[in-house]
Amino acid sequence: MDASERAAPYFAAAARGVLALQRCAACGTAVFPLRERCAQCGSKELRWSESRGAGRVFAHGRLERSSLPEHAGKLPLTLLLVDLDDGPRIPARLAAGAPAVRAGDRVELGFESAGDGTPLPVFRAVPA
Ligand SMILES: [Zn+2]
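^ thats the input. predicted complex w/ zinc ion below
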């Protein structure tokens, strides 16, 4: 199985607005990004599960400059590390046009399209 085949369930879920995570069948650890083996115990028995997409901001930072083509026309961007309620800490972006967030804020997942159509996980604050 090549990398794109392995990632197919992730992209199929993203097209529905759902974040798919791998979870280790041996030890239960959520695995993200995609791996062939569990980072915790080394098992290759990874199963797909769907995150509810709710979490809390662990950290945020502002990206002012970038030479990556995918960032062209989108700066400044707010980059986030989000602790999912039902998964690991994942890197993501603040949704376009969303109000600023602070560490500890509750956030919910969405997807935005990268320039090439790749779905990117983004978060916005949950209204209090
Ligand atoms: Zn494991």
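Residues 3-15 form the longest helix (13 residues).
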